[in-house]
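It would be a great kindness if you could assist me with a short task in structural biology. The matter concerns a single protein, recorded as an amino acid sequence and a row of backbone structure tokens. Kindly check, if you would, that the fold set down in the tokens agrees with what the sequence suggests. Thank you for your consideration; the sequence and its tokens are set out here:
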Amino acid sequence: MVLVASYNIRKAIGADRRRRPDRILEVLCEVDADIVALQEADRRFGERTTALPLHMIAEHSPYMAVPLDVRPGSIGWHGNALLVRRSATIAAHETIVLPALEPRGAVMADIEIGGVGVRVVGMHLDLSGLWRRRQAHAILARLAAMPRKLPTILMGDMNEWRTAGGCLNDFSQHYRFAPTGPSFHARRPVARLDRILVSEEWEVAGAGVHRTPGARTASDHLPIWARLNPIVA
């Protein structure tokens, strides 16, 4: 079994407009996923350093950041980052450039955890429906071009308010959506902006939204999670 989660952490700025990375890490420890996709993980301006200092991740969580090596002091690529348990092995990683009017990207890593090889993609798609579809196509094309196939998980903030159509339809031609639920806004979640998708090699044993007092104040999104079992042929 692999437990995965996706969380838009809003640069660690909570409902009280205070930047508190410690609250984000507390929520991540509550969820206790094996692999986490983060969005808005880096500050937006200046040197765009990580909103979750590496020393705090090391001292206050069971995670390590996938080393994207894009910018000193950053753990992300256009705000997208991946955290994995320190017991995991990171076999490969890369950034995916996405077509966009404003800077957007996705991140991908091949991870070995609990004896299972997993390919994970983290993303934060555009506000424009047209550009979201172009970005979905770019991600799907990159996955299709990978020479080695692995059980795959896609996670992130898709910025899609509709329940069907658009980029959701594009992704659903190749992957299944885990039934997580609405995660935005954290105080009163009504929209399923955050999504987890899986390839046919996975059985979704459980999925949901992490609703706790800490999660409702740490960011404007709630974390979503899915419990996955590899399907043995």
Helices lie at 21-31, 54-60, 129-145, 166-172, 213-218. The mean pLDDT is 95.
